[in-house]
Structure prediction request, 389 residues.
Amino acid sequence: MSNCQIKRAAGFSLLEMTIALALGAIVLAAAVQIYIQGLNATWIATQRAEMQENFRAASNILTKDLGLAGAGLGPTVAIPLPSSTAPVYGCDQTKTCYLNGTSVSYPEQGTTRYLYGLLPGYDDGPTLLTAQGPTDIITVVYTDPILYLDCYTATAASATTATFVLPSSTSSNCTAPSGTTPQAVNDAAQGLMAGDLVLFYFGTTPVVAEVTGAVTSSTSGSVTTYTVPFAASDVLNMNQGTTVKYSLAYQYTSGSVKTGYANRIEVITYYIDNTVSPPRLMRQISGHSPVAVAEDLAYLKFTYNLFNTATTTLAVGCTNPGAATDGCTPSGASSGMLPNQVTQINIQNMAIDSSLQSALYGLANGYQRLDLQTSVCPRNLTYVNDYNN
Prediction:
């Protein structure tokens, strides 16, 4: 009988197992770290792309409107308004006011308030961060280049209505391209509607009035007459009584000239709305409801450069031009100057934050921010260029 020998297979020792586990842990940790870094980089890139998208939308439309300030308003860019009750901006047809929860009155010279191509709004916005203080608003005004209202003959038909009739021959005031038929005043897409502001010229007298209802029309033969309501007690306080100078009602009862032409004007205000989270940059036109331009606004401040044509002096970097403390260089340089003497608008700081949650997936990299500082020259406001020959 033979003896059977059993051979034992050699295994890993405890030391070998420990070394193998340690090396595996190191490799796994390195892989996890590389994954986290990749996820982190992707997240940062996504944040920045989201910010840049919002930032482009905000900066493009804002700078375009700033450049058009005063366009079509005439050489002085200063239009007197009916001032028995202070006319305002920043409210819509629901009688809701949005500029830090209220409205803003037009600037006053003597006893008359004026509409300028540019209306600075120093500290009129909400405070988002106590250390930074209040934000600014800014309002620009220009004539609407889309609706060819100036091709019509405008008539003060009553104290609360005006009529528009297209003349048989093209008016000298008409800005419609040759061969283009002006839109109907009640055109569904581009016509007048409640909340619009209309600038009339009866002879040399300017009158601003707010449309308060739907436009009606009647046709006799080949002539269509459009009747536009401008009822009293409008939201923006433009349609004042028969005894109030520069009102449509006053022009109807007292004016020697009741026929002229008109333009729709756009009174466009930019402000930060912090009643929602995150805060938004809003754009409001005349008496219409505001629309959001971009989210996650963190700050908004402007300064202004002015030029005094009478004294040929500059006022630079004014935070609140014309005020006792104007912030200008030199201090007080804007004393007695008006908004139509602004030659340059400086966006001192428009800051926008990322809105994506940086704590997602365990990341804690904080929010990113983009800041804009730039200058825009409102070419239609009064300015003077001096060159040495």
Remarks:
- Residues 48-376 form one domain.
- Confidence is low (pLDDT under 50) at residues 358-364, 383-389.
- The longest strand covers residues 259-273.
- The two ends are 129 Å apart (CA to CA).
